[in-house]
Structure prediction request, 353 residues.
Amino acid sequence: MNNKTKILVTGGAGFIGSHLIRLLVNKYPDTLIVNIDKLTYAGNLANLKDVENMPNYRFVKADICDYEKMQQIFAEYQINGVIHLAAESHVDRSITDPFVFAKTNVIGTLTLLQAAKEYWKNDMNGKLFYHVSTDEVYGSLDHGGFFLETTPYDPKSPYSASKAASDHFVRAFHNTYKLPVIISNCSNNYGPYQFPEKLIPLFINNIRHNKPLPVYGKGENVRDWLYVEDHARAIDLIFHKGKIGDTYNIGGFNEWKNIDLIRVMIKVADRLLDRTEGASEQLITYVADRAGHDLRYAIDSTKLHEELGWSPSLQFEEGIEKTIRWYLDNQDWLDNVTSGDYQKYYERMYINQ
Ligand code: NAD
Ligand code: DAU
Prediction:
């Protein structure tokens, strides 16, 4: 099914999108990769410096909610495959401003689906709309069990509700209009170029600057962490080999209680910063819990492994050290993305509560 030669990637200037674009542009020199991104606070073209001049890469600044613009892009580039990542992605922001999540994640996805359906309506053969979703649509687990592809949806935050709604629209377009679709639901990603509002880059930046490490509640919530390049590899594999109409869970069977993960980060960062081992433990500060904080996520990705042969390539110890080293070596990138509006966000979230 490797006949999609003009691929539209949405949200390619964000964290996961930039890793995916890098992979696709380098791996498929004869495929045109068109990146559309609104460049919100989370989108940054500096994430793509190394590929911006590649002959098979184009960037268009556009909002996925703009239907006419989406129609124009499908026609201009004769798009025959979509990998849709553009979204509002931070749970805390969805708690303070749910409307923008409904707009981008639900209306934006619907707008793209409609544009794809209209552009492909005379020949759906060989086309694919791939929607990148999250494990959070399945809700929250107790201490046992895993999310399977068949687990009923039970989203609990405005973010996960908006992602669940977008997944439903994707399936509805498959059922109603026979649009060829695939959905994947992945666990927490970590790695370079993640905006420092998310746990791992936020805490690395704060350790570096000797600032408090705001642990929500008791730090007992559990997340299942996957290195971002392994997610990008999984998306590439599913996009080219996955079964139309199917869902694939992606995760590394790598669960960590937040406080244990934070202690590992402190240990590695202190070593890399030439500090006494454990010196930064004093920065740990327990703060008010996130409203409606999901206790545990754990993904069962057996289907992806058994049907398509995917496994994570990196052990967590290696991945977290590589990640911490990257942020410490790329302080300019961090300084750049934390200037401007980030300061206001940080004060609202962590200082003036
Ligand atoms: P991100 O916030 O880093 O990037 C999102 C990108 O989308 C940004 O470049 C932003 O500018 C762009 N964008 C936002 N609104 C837009 C709009 N209206 N039009 C066009 N572009 C717009 O997000 P991420 O962490 O890279 O996540 C990418 C996707 O993967 C999201 O759909 C998210 O739900 C999903 N996901 C993320 C994770 C994770 O751990 N980060 C895990 C599973 C799934
Ligand atoms: O599971 C996939 C999801 O993972 C993605 O769909 C989301 O886009 C992505 O943001 C992520 O959501 P989380 O809410 O799990 O990630 P976050 O990094 O915000 O938080 C991870 C855990 O750390 C969570 O239990 C909350 C906690 N936390 C987070 C922050 C920012 C803290 O204790 N303190 C903090 O300051």
